[in-house]
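retry 2 of 3: previous attempt timed out while embedding zinc ion. Reduced batch size to 1 and resubmitted. Inputs unchanged:
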Amino acid sequence: MKLSFHGAARGVTGSCHLVECAGQKILVDCGMFQGPREIEEENAADFGFSPRQIDIILLTHAHLDHCGRIPLLVKRGFQGEIVATSATHDLARLVMLDSAYLHEEAGKRAQRHGKSGQALYDTMDALDAVDRFGRTADYGVPIDLAPGIRATFFEAGHILGSASILLELDEDGRRKSVLFSGDIGPQDRLLLNDPAPPEGADIVVMESTYGDRDHRPLDNSLDEFYAAIRGTIRRGGNVIIPTFALERTQEILFALHKGAAQDALPKALPVYLDSPMAISATRIFGRHPDAMRPELAEMIRSGRDPFGLPGLKVTREASESMKLNDVHGGAVIMAGSGMCTGGRVRHHLRHNLPNPDSSVIFIGFAAEGTPARAIVDGATELKLFGKTIPVRASIHTINGFSAHAGRKDLIAWHARTKARERTFLVHGEEKSMKALAEALAPARVDRPRAHQSFDL
Ligand SMILES: [Zn+2]
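retry 2 succeeded.
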């Protein structure tokens, strides 16, 4: 029995962990490396194992940094089964197809500039990957993957359908259990249920994104959020919200819905959702009421739309998006990507960053080396489309909407697992990983390096 780490090892992105037991090779996640160019270049490198030999992929959730390399794995020979929850299946399909499209476009751009650009994978590879989805996992219901290998998914509270996965292994009578946290959500979210990990795994593999800090409570963040919007609208500027298409967008839409209902925001506030992917993702949310908090499920079942707003306009087409450049004030514009590394939000930043009346509200994680991080860290100018753009808009960072548990919740989550033997920390930057490792003492904690392998 072996466990090896092929991504998110001493880094946040590219989650990919391999379990070998009883002649089977099980991959937990196969995500994209994201960030500055030198990190993204790792995507094209060898996986560190043979894709052809992988029997099953267990997918914790649909974020790109967890499912984004599955089409590449398929392109390189993976022919096994992908097992995930039903909501993860729906969302991962969207995420992988969108990613394939972006890679195709990047490949074409490179070719136009005379570079030997080849897409990492294309839409056909992503469709092949979608075909590999097999059994659907329900929370708490064990699935026998192969003789000696059983998987059970548990609520992780991170995005719709997200799971922690318990693997129970038996090799010639030797038994081990390994719990993969996936990404862990905070307690008391707007849309999702709290994480509910099982107790007593021998080994825990755990994320550590916010191992060194806590988020502000959600109520304070909502007040801050509404105040920032009201202030900007009063000044006559626009509010730009760089969004992650999954979860955060729906959470923000619900927060705006609540704000308008409680008179914290103008009832007919013009809100533009300028992200085709977020529009599709929001529809998928509507199809999975049971994966949300009971009150949300109830709203949807009774025909009310928790993501609807009187002033909401969705802009799917690029031409509609371009028209938003003429909206000089008084509106909320939500667009991707969340870290401003690409996507439509960059156009809105170009038009609004120089305007002192406008504001940019960051509501999610901003990785090192991304434009979002530069702005959050106080950059006075930003390079966009080859031009230097001054940052005069007011910048807000509201961290209570995080889809990731803060330090306190991570420590509490780990305590609930009652890990018996050892814990591996993954999915974190050095600083936060170290801080969490210290907090978990005296538990035995390792921080594996990329491609490091351990006998179980
Ligand atoms: Zn995630």
